[in-house]
């Protein structure tokens, strides 16, 4: 029996680029179950954290049979899917697209799962979005921070 799983995500960055983090709240309403995740990075961008939150949440799912609803305050993420921009990016091999490593990681996940993306206004009192924001901000401030390898490699001009 397919379950409805609600995934709420947010990304945060102190400086852009700067220290960043993501927050995830996953809920299964009919089972009254929820789980929270977060992680911080020493140098990244807000958009990368918004994307990574969705990716990590989808990677945590154990079944592809459920009805997945993703709530994000990122127009960058929600519009890429809902406006179908991602399909053009795929056709062009993600040429001239920011964060190609993360988009390429997301594509098989959204193909594998039955996903619906919902945009919510950030910092507007949406309870689950506020929880995710708090998780993301705290993660960005909590050592040890992970290294966003792709981003830092790009920032260094691919030198090392």
Give the helices and strands, then pairings.
Blueprint lengths: L3 E12 L2 E11 L4 E12 L1 H15 L6 E6 L2 H8 L2 H7 L8 H13 L1 E6 L7 H14 L8 H7 L5
Parallel strand pairs: 1-4, 4-5
Antiparallel strand pairs: 1-2, 2-3
Helix pairs in contact: 1-4
In short:
The chain has one domain: Nucleotidyltransferase, domain 5. The chain is built from 6 helices and 5 strands, in the order E-E-E-H-E-H-H-H-E-H-H.
What does this structure look like?
It is a single chain. This protein is an alpha/beta fold and about 160 residues long. The chain has one domain (about 5-155): Ribonuclease H-like superfamily/Ribonuclease H (Nucleotidyltransferase, domain 5). It has helices at about 45-60, 75-80, 85-90, 100-110, 125-140, 150-155, and strands at about 5-15, 20-30, 35-45, 65-70, 115-120. The protein has a 5-stranded mixed sheet with strand order 3-2-1-4-5. Helix 1 (about 45-60) packs parallel to helix 4 (about 100-110). The radius of gyration is 15 Å and the shape is globular. The termini are far apart. The model has no long low-confidence stretch (mean pLDDT about 95).
């Amino acid at each position: 029996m397919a379950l409805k799983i609600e995934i709420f995500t947010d990304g945060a960055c102190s400086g852009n680029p700067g220290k960043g983090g993501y927050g995830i709240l996953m809920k299964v309403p009919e089972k009254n179950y929820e789980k929270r995740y977060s992680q911080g990075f020493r140098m990244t961008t807000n958009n990368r954290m918004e994307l990574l939150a969705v990716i990590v949440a989808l990677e945590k799912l154990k079944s592809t049979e459920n009805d997945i609803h993703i709530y994000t305050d990122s127009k960058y993420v929600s519009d890429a899917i809902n406006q179908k921009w991602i399909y053009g990016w795929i056709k062009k091999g993600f040429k001239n697209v920011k964060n190609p490593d993360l988009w390429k990681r997301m594509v098989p996940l959204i193909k594998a799962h039955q996903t619906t993306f919902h945009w919510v206004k950030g910092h507007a009192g949406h309870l689950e979005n506020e929880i995710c924001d708090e998780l993301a901000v705290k993660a960005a401030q909590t050592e040890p921070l992970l290294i966003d390898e792709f981003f830092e490699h790009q920032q260094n001009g691919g030198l090392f």
